Amino acid sequence: MAGPGLGCGPSATLWVAVTALSAALLAPGLTQPHDLSRRRPLGLKIDQALLLVHNELMHENLTVSWLSDYCYQCLYQDLVSVPMSNTPGKSSIVAVAVDSQHPITLHLNGTGAGREFPRIHYHFGEFGNYSLVVNFGSGTKMISCNIIINESPVNSHLPILYAFLIYMGVLSILTVGHVFMIIDPIRNWFYKKLHPGDTDHLINSELGSPTRADSTSSNVPATTWTVSQQRLRSLDIFRGLSLIIMVFVNYGGGKYWFFKHQSWNGLTLADLVFPWFVFIMGTSISLSLNSMLRRRCSKWKLLGKALWRSFLLFLIGIVIVSPNYCLGPLSWDNLRIPGVLQRLGFTYLVVAVLELVFAKAVAENDTLLETPYFALRDILLYWPQWVFILTLEVTWLGLTFLLTVPGCPKGYLGPGGIGDFGKYPNCTGGAAGYIDRLLLGEKHIYQHPSSNALYQTTVAYDPEGILGTINSICMAFFGLQAGKIFLFYKDQHKQIMSRFFIWSVVMGIISAILTKCSKDEGYIPANKNLWSISYVTTLSCFAFLLLLLIYYLVDVKRWWSGAPFFYPGMNSILVYVGHEVFENYFPFKWKMKDSQSHGEHLAQNLVATSIWVIISYLLYRKRIFWKI
Ligand SMILES: *[C@@H]1O[C@H](CO)[C@@H](O)[C@H](O)[C@H]1NC(C)=O
Ligand SMILES: *[C@@H]1O[C@H](CO)[C@@H](O)[C@H](O)[C@H]1NC(C)=O
């Protein structure tokens, strides 16, 4: 009775009802209690504060330049110049907007020679009103600067707290509902009404929908099919979790910097999810290919299928990343070629072929029980795959560090622009950027990399470019390894979990060495734009841990049904494509009262994300899956 499908039926329906409720609550709830628009000094944008610079120096013009703490080795940028006051005894004041996301350093300079101007390090708050008063201190040689708060800033993180409380409310209603469901007659009634029927379908496909092959070739003796009887829900939940965060982040993440991609090096929430998606794709490839091989599917047929799938992914990817598809025929002149689905498609193809060529159905290997390396058989049996992956990695390192890029230093990993003290403004992404611009053309790659704003880069750079795809194959291969662990040690929870833990530790150590545990100072910093190798190892470290946790909660202990992440995980292609295509349509987007308010953005993005979860749940109930 306590099958995995049961717990989720009624409670998930409740979940949907309550999420719909919370979606209705969120929009007004996050914006009403502290109407930010009333407090916003006119003309200020989101993440800005007002700074009034008072020049009280006589006969001297003042210039102010600034630098964000998050801009690594950047040049100071001009902020404002304040002319000297014409009327004696009065200061001249100029108002300017300053960044409030990160602490910044202000650097003052005057026209008079031989003076020491102090630097000011300060973290302005959003929509605050500040004065910077510059005058001669008590001694006339020293300039003194003081920051005065005229009006205190708003707390722009408050909406996150409200959203959190609303979702916690949802969770508690759900829990109460769950307890309610334990009462037998009620549960039976719900169960009859709502149980979607046959839940124990087979191992999910690589991309999260049950494959066609699963439903057609069911004439195989059940004895050869042990893994599927205990479907691994953790994979779908892991996939769904990454996907939902991805949707939220793509919709804007409330315009908070920590929900958006990092400008260059380092990790934010947004930088975590794509690699996880790639990782779990690898895991699913391992499980589904193995099951099909054991059902005597021909390798050629599977190869054809893999080719077709990756072709479709590539095609869909091209269509949805192209911005013009609503405005008329595709414009070939500036069609973006790389993209998320394109990279997924290619990664899928390479890893699936690699697995097809070298995989053996796992059951055959039981004769190896006596060999000395038994504990490592999930690795050693596949040594040719490891050789291939290592070769790829050497290729990545070679191209990244040895390729000669005109006008740029060898092995450049920086953002260009004003980074590296402005020495290499057009070198964004070093070899990775160069290869894409050379092979695909400047117009056929992404035009607005995340380094645009902070580092003021001007060249096009694609975060889903060619060189990074090598490392995404690597990421999927680590996921494939997780799948092999599931297969080799099936039902031996301790074995599986300890292996995941060991992998996580190993990956963590490699990352710590490569990055020197720092954001910018390492040999190879973790970088989403480059998909550097340290990024892959760091994210694999997290992925093994996360999978371990979900596996323990869901498949070992059965404490959690996986709702709500399970449902989008089952229909990932549909949710991904859907969220991209309908991004600008109601109810995923609407006209905001104040487009410069974090609260409204957060409400909109969370509502949109919740709606996709509801859609995927309804489709799950109707057994509608988009299979490719
Ligand atoms: C900022 O504060 C100053 C000093 O109190 C005040 O004169 C000015 O009007 C304020 N600016 C805005 C836009 O509120
Ligand atoms: C960078 O590219 C821009 C535009 O193509 C060009 O004007 C500029 O001179 C280049 N800078 C360097 C240092 O090559």
TrEMBL record:
UniProt GO cellular component terms: lysosomal membrane
Stretches assigned to the Heparan-alpha-glucosaminide N-acetyltransferase catalytic domain: 231-354
Pfam families: HGSNAT_cat
Keyword Membrane: yes
Keyword Membrane: yes
GO BP, one annotated term: lysosomal transport
Entry keywords, A to Z: Membrane, Transmembrane, Transmembrane helix
InterPro entries: HGSNAT_cat (IPR012429)
Transmembrane segments: 12-30, 161-183, 237-253, 273-294, 306-325, 345-363, 383-405, 466-489, 496-514, 534-553, 565-582, 602-620
GO molecular function: acyltransferase activity
Protein's recorded name: Heparan-alpha-glucosaminide N-acetyltransferase
Organism of this sequence: Gopherus evgoodei (Goodes thornscrub tortoise)
Gene designation per UniProt: HGSNAT
